Amino acid sequence: MSAMRIAALGGGHGLYATLTAMRYLSPHVTAIVTVADDGGSSGRLRSELGVIPPGDLRMAMAALMCAPAALDGLAGRRDPAADRRHHELWAETLQHRFGGYGALAGHPVGNLLLAGLTEVLGDPVAALDEMMRVFDVDGRVLPMSSVPLEIEADVSGLESDPRISRVIRGQVAVATTPGKVRRVRLLPAEPPVCEPVITAVDEADLVVLGPGSWFSSVIPHVLVPDLLKALQRSTSRKVLIVNLAPEPGETPGFSVERHLHVLHAHADTLTIDHVVVDESSVPAGREREHLERAAGMFGASLEVGDLAVPGRHVHDPAKVAGLIKQLCSRETTR
């Protein structure tokens, strides 16, 4: 299991949780991160410097820095506990936001460091690789696309006539719209993939998509044509982790089944081996039977388990890792 190569696709807090879980399984984890954020510090740096928004990339790096004790010694480190404390300090520092009321207020340290290194090296991938090397972190962080992207959505419920949709542009606007998101697109259309992403997917033993903001962190990965082609031809085990609960703004009122139908509407040629859901989000009975049929649209089996932190709509990384480890021990049926 320690030699397994994992590619994890997503963005934001959802990808952070997935990466934390995958680090229980292997040190060889590549994070493939959405690059459409236009809010907060990322939005400011993107607008002022023209860089790929660094926020989700920074969060992915911080997640990979905090390897669980279960991985101690797997990478051949002489003092794993000391390395873990070192990585945790720097992960906290990269995530730290400046206070005050000046120009730096609200900027995380890691965003500024990544933006600055990108300007020096002239390449965001080189900057990410260099930061991972400097901090001596196993794994890799890659942007999904080689250019900053915008999300555009068709949203209903904003006009007096519910049949009329309005076009909403921008990740923050889409995530906070009071209407119902029907479909999303990326701008530019058919954006270029970051080439090392294709290699990571091609070489992976396990590919994990989700959880996360469904329209702005999960679905965008299947809207990059070359990335979708890589996912389609991949012979790795592919796992989709569905959100524990609907997300205000993006997916209010969505059932777990609805999440699958929306993803399939955006990528009806995508095949997946396993759809993973938390048992409390889909009671046994007719609703779960419907969900099994929805998973079948992707050629996937439905996998149900206790995956949440008790009392919270947050995935427990150790529980997620345990279930996926079980899945990886099975014979591939396809």
UniProtKB/TrEMBL annotation:
Highest taxon listed in the record's lineage: Bacteria
Matches recorded under InterPro entries: CofD, CofD-like_dom_sf, Gluconeogen_factor
Coiled coil: none
Keyword NAD: no
Assigned GO CC terms: cytoplasm
Main localisation: cytoplasm
Cell location: Cytoplasm
MF terms (GO), sorted A to Z: LPPG:FO 2-phospho-L-lactate transferase activity
Function as written in the Swiss-Prot or TrEMBL entry: Required for morphogenesis under gluconeogenic growth conditions.
Annotated family: Belongs to the gluconeogenesis factor family.
Protein's UniProt name: Putative gluconeogenesis factor
Species in which this protein is naturally found: Gordonia oryzae
Gene: yvcK
